[in-house]
Structures are given as structure tokens and as C-alpha cells.
Amino acid sequence: MSAIPQPGGEQPSLRRYLDQPRIGPTALRIVLGARLRRLRQDRDITRVEAGRSIRASDAKITRLERGQVGFKQRDISDLLTLYRVLDEDERAEYAEMARQAGMPGWWHQYNDVLEDWFELHVGLEEAASLIRTYEVQFLPGLLQTPDYARVVTRLGYPDATVSKIDRLVELRLERQKLLDLPEAPKLWAVLDEAVLRRPFGGPEVMRAQLLHLIEMARRPGITLQIAPFSVGALAAAGTPVTLLRFAEPDLPDKVYLEQLTGAVYLDKQEEIDQYSLIMDRLSAEANPPQETEAFLRSLLDSLA
Question: What pLDDT, on the 0 to 100 scale, is given for residue 235?
Fold first, then answer.
């Protein structure tokens, strides 16, 4: 991985991102915004001046630089001219990145059921190199069986139609295909014992789910730990936490905090550091990964 370019220094070619199949439109939008922000800052140009060049407000520049909205080709062209990026090949790379960043991801076919606040997470998940998660109520979506997913989805959407529940479960199973890719991200999950003790769907559903966890925990790219009730300090985390790490320097790490009807995304370095320490502590206090299968099998025996 190349070093993060310093202000005023030459930035690596954008081609490195365009040629990577797992860097989807969400990640490309964030990378493009970060590159344009760095260009603007290197040229000592204010957001107000940049906004004026594309006939918009400084607030729009902020949204563009944060990767929250897509880019129009005309806006890209005008901003690059303002930032004195005149090389035609380099401008073509920016234009191509803007085009790809504006393309719908596979998850757009689920727009009828996909919440706006969750769409960003699905897009970032696609590009992550490491996904660390701590769960206190439900199993991670990436590790759920279809029957378990159906039960917990019904809990979250008690008034939804059967067709909507079916679509939401289908979306969850599509997300799981990420773990089967040759360049799949590493998944490191810490599960509170209470998650495994809750008999969602009854004994048969939980039996199949526990067997699935055993199978997944054997994969070389997946680390699964159990935080038993005896480790009381784990409750200090309070809520589920997911930390997304990326191999590329233009993609800042993200902390994802999911709530009942929304989510919070954090990417300030001090926030990332704080939650990284929390995750490290949780992993240190939980049972080691090599004890996970025995723990899950003891739970299976209790269901017999």
C-alpha cells in the first residue's frame, strides 16, 4: 500500500481504484471527494470559491468532498480547471471515476426496502479489508442463516408484509456473498453470550444457526469469539459496534453504530482510535477464538 500523499505532493494515480472490482460506487465517491478536497486545500481555495465555480453553495462542496452525493461531469471539469489540473490524462481519470461513482451498486435493486441510512454501510462493506464487529443482541448479518434472518427481520419490521420481509432477507443473503469472494474482507466478530442464548425462532432455527457459526468460524478469513456472561466488563461497550478498515489511503476507517431507526457513522481519527481501543479490549477479554467451537457445541447440546 502506498503512502498517503502529503499536501502539495504528487498523488498516486486514480487508476489504482478504477481497476479494483471490489471498490464499488460508494467507496469511489468517497475517494473522489477526498482527492478533490486535497486539491482544493493544496491550492488554498475556499469552499465558497469552489462552490461559485460550479454555480453552487459551499454546502454542496462539503457534501461532494465527503462523498455524500454524486458528481456531475461538468462540475468535475470546472473544479479541476479551478484547481489547475490541466493534464488531459489525469482529467480523464477523474471523469471516469465520477462516472463509475455514479453507477448503481448491486444493492440498488433493493431500493424498495433498503433504508437510506443502511445503504452507505452496504457500500462500505463491499470495499472493506477488515470488518470488526461486537454484537450484544443479534448475530451479525453476515453470519445469519436464512431462517434466523427471517425471525430477527420480523422483529425489526413487525408490521411489514411477507413480501417485504422476503426482500429484506434476500438482501441480507446477497451481502453474505461478499465472504465468498477471492479477495473477501477479514471478518472478526465478538458475540456476547446473550446473543447465542436468545432462542430466536425456536430450537430448530437456533440449532441450524449454531452449526452454521461453527462452519464459518473454521474459515481462515473469519475470527469468531464469544464473550461469556462471566466477563461483566464487556457491558461497558453498551451497544453494537462495527469498525470498517480499508487498505486504500484515500478511504478513512469508519465506525458504524446502528440504532433502531437509523445509524451513526464516525470517521474522525480520535473516534476511530477510541473505538479501536474498545474493540481491542473486548477481544482481549472474550474467550480466545480456539475455544469458540467447543462453546458453540455446548450450546448445541443444551438444545438437544
Answer: 52
Query: Which grid coordinates belong to 271?
Result: 473516534
Same domain as 117, residue 175: yes
How many residues make up the chain in this entry?
304
Identify residue 74 by its one-letter amino acid code.
R
* CATH number of the domain that residue 24 is part of: 1.10.260.40
Asked whether 83 and 77 are in contact (CB, 8 A), the reply is no
Residue pair 224/191 in contact by the 8 Å Cβ criterion: yes
C-alpha cell at 145: 442463516
**Of 49, 67, 101, which marks where a domain is finished?**
101
Element of type H or E holding 26:
helix 25-42
**Could you give the CA distance from residue 277 to residue 213 in angstroms, rounded to a whole number?**
26
Q: Write out pLDDT tens, residues 76-122.
A: 999 999 999 999 999 999 999 999 999 999 999 999 999 999 999 99
pTM of the model as a whole: 0.88
Q: Which residues pair with 186 in a beta bridge?
A: 130
Angstrom distance (rounded) from CA 91 to CA 98: 11
How many domains is the chain partitioned into structurally? 2
Sheet holding 263-266, edge to edge: 222-227, 186-192, 130-135, 241-245, 254-258, 263-266
Total Cβ atoms within 10 A of residue 37: 18
Q: 161-173 burial by CB neighbour count: b if 16+ within 10 A, else e?
A: eeeebebbbebbe
Q: Which domain holds residue 221?
A: 112-303
1 domain residue, yes or no:
no
Residue partners of 130: CB distance under 8 A and separation at least 6? 185, 186, 188, 243, 244, 245
